[in-house]
Specification:
Blueprint lengths: L1 H19 L10 H5 L6 E5 L2 E4 H17 L11 H23 L6 H9 L5 E2 L2 E2 L1 H10 L4 H19 L9 H12 L1 E10 L11 H10 L5 E2 L2 E10 L11 H10 L9 E10 L6 H20 L4 H8 L3 H4 L4 E5 L6 H7 L11 E3 L2 E11 L5 H34 L5 H7 L4 E2 L3 E2 H8 L2 H7 L2 H4 L8 E4 L2 E11 L2 E2 L2 H33 L13 E3 L9 H7 L9 E7 L3 E11 L3 H30 L2 E3 L1 H5 L6
Antiparallel strand pairs: 1-2, 1-20, 3-4, 5-17, 5-19, 6-16, 7-12, 7-13, 7-15, 8-9, 8-11, 10-11, 14-15, 18-19
Length: 630
Amino acid sequence: MLEAIRAHSQGWLAKLILTLIAVPFALFGIDAYLKNAGSDAAVAKVAGSSVSVVEYRNAMQSLRNKMQSEGQKDLSLLDTPQARLTVLNRLINTRLLNAEAQDSKFKISNEQLSEFVITLPEFQQNGKFSQEVYDKLLTQNQMTPSKFENMMRGELVTQQVRDGIPPLVFATKAVEDRAIKTELQQREVTIAEIKSADFISQVKVDDAEVKAYYEKHKDKFQVPEQVKLEFVRFSANDLIMKMQVTEEDSKRFYNENAAKFQGDEKRRASHILIGFGPGATPEAKAQAKKKAEEILAEVKKNPAKFAELAKKNSQDPGSAEKGGDLGMFGRGAMVKAFEEAAYSMKPGQVSDLVQSEFGFHIIKLTEISGQAQSYESLKPQIRAELMYQKALAKFSEEAENFNNLVYEQSSSLKPAADNYGLQVQKTDWVSAADGAKFFKNDKLMSLVFSNEVLNDKRNTEAVEVANNTLVAARVVEHKAAAPRSFDEVKVGITDFLKIEKASKLAIDKGNAALASLKQNQAVSNIDWIPAVTVDRKNAQGLTELTMSNVFKIDTTKLPAYVGVSDSKKGFLLIKVVAVHDADEDTVKAASADYKAALTAEYGAAYIATLKTKNKVSVNQRLLMGDMAAQ
């Protein structure tokens, strides 16, 4: 069994392990993870356990790092709802498999776990497992041996469940061959359209027919219930110009948001890290500090030896072998203490000891590129931002008072409008549907047509129709629903009946032509387009309606025909001229893909079964809202 797992480790499991023990974890690219490491909020709950925000963000960052390492520059895909949900579903599926493994009492013995871990290349030194390397890597990632080994045990147990799926996959050779040939088959196709529009000139509709249709379908010609409204809109945007921003406010905002205004400025630094593990005792920290001070003294004495001392002493393996070089970085890439020190230095300068959660750093700034944006150049932008922020805060304070005013002074919107310097606006006649489109809000219009507002002429409550925007309305005039007059709809009914009759003529002609063609009889006045060769993935410009029928046609005898009627457009004739099956080599090459697809289907069905067996819930607000800003 362990050999099978080791084989799998060349794929997904190896990637997991590399993610877990990536030493640059300490300083590069995951500050979102570090800043939120204390969060225990659940983005999903599965079978009694939780998928935390931290775990989700770590998975997203791992994917981001992997894409970057593969040279992908456009990472915008990761910000889509689909990508977030895909990553979360993988975590959920792992939880489900873990729960199933526990229920089925799958186990990995200590001996099996030990044998697996000691053979991992990340923990090797001179071809052998190194306890020192193992401890060092785990310490750098703030992970205890028991935590890492428990994680590995869980993943290996889960792999046992995964390994149980492929042996269940089965399809006979005949079924497999037929499925592959059908999927790869190409058909040479041509079509002809018999259009309703071509028969319009041949049909007549008299007034009696139009009148009869109107009387029979009066319910289709109703003018909906309508109202004329007064309304007041209260928005944060209305408050912006009333907000006061001082010079002191602007400068403070600039200083507190330096990363946001860094422009294209980047810095390059080297460091020597003397680390201490998570939960280190004061004695251990003191010992690390003493060693760091000794090294700092050597650096101060001879700055030219910085790279040599980094290679010899730094406990950050990712940069030590490069003489401590961390490359170019912008604001937000490093932990806060490190960043503040690096951005306060000049090129060539060496810092005093800088303490972070990873240990004591000695930093040497080596290069500055680009330029930060100055306060003066950003002053108008900052002022506008602060005015907007203050307007939002003021809106939040006043929203409840605005709602109280329109409720307490329910016979008029003027008191609320006067209090906030707003204008009472009016609409023309609108239906519920028209009003919902105008205000972009269904709730407001449902209130407008309620008895209290419609009949008693009261104000609606204040409804949030957009972010930081409230609207209250009241009915000024009301008209009940009524049928449109015959004269209003006569032309429309006439056109509709003409199309209906023309479509019937087109469909009749199409069916007659189809019957003749199936009897190998020639049919005149049919315009076939030039034949194209299509497969299930390449429509060659044919419509979806055509493609949905092409591969349903019985091609035992060629040419083969089918007809599709459309009550408005007419009739579509489809002819299959030739069928081209894939050659034996192509079918054989597709066999592995077929088996993989079948295995994936079995796996998906198994996961779906587990989801019905175990309760799964997702916090959509957290997934699509709060965490989108990570």
